[in-house]
From TrEMBL:
One Pfam family, short name: TY-Chap3
InterPro entries registered for this protein in UniProt: TY-Chap_N
Chain residue ranges for the region called Disordered: 92-112, 168-190
Biased composition (Acidic residues): 181-190
Bilayer-spanning residue ranges: none
Residue stretches making up the TY-Chap N-terminal domain: 22-149
The protein, known as: TY-Chap N-terminal domain-containing protein
Superkingdom as given in the UniProt entry: Bacteria
Amino acid sequence: MSKSIENRAVSRNRDSLKTLSRAWTYFSKKLALALSKLKEDQYLIINAKRCDRYVQFACDGEKGMRVEVSSNHFLKGKDRLNRRQTSWLRENGWNAPTGKVNKATPEKEPNGSPNYFVGLPVSVPAGDIAHLATEALVHGLEIPGPTSLSYQTFPARGTTVEFEDLSQFEGEEPRPREMFDDPEPHDEDDPAYREEIFETMKAIGCVPESLTDSEEAEEYRLWLEKNP
């Protein structure tokens, strides 16, 4: 990766998260703690609960970390990214996929990926990586909020993955977990909390048609009519 691309990927405005909800800011901090614990050959995958979009992290020891965002090579139907979302990823430091799944493999193309990706040296702080990933979740994948996420971990053989404020994970197979609870958990049916979620969705330009849950899409559409 060229130095310019590397800088563009991590040199995001440090104040940009202040425009997001408190929940996303807290999420980014907890993600940074988790990433700081990753060891060589350990992986962390952040999944959207209601669709197949994800961000994944692979620790390569002293070589740094590879971060990937799901591309349309892995997405179908309503889960696929639209032109606005793919443009945002490309314009904000993410390398475009270099080939299809059977072409851009680690063996055939070790410096590429069928996903949007960035390779970061070990000198990049975990906080910057978490910031980069959080922005991708919000603006690239348009995830409504951290409560819409779960995580999976893949530990290196013979090791245990332990994350700050996350359940201890053991074994070779991934297991879904609830993702980084807000310090003040909310009732998702609480009107004030729904208002906060919809404000965030509106701020990032989320449209009802992008939601896979039809009931939530209709609720959001009615809210937009009252809050143009």
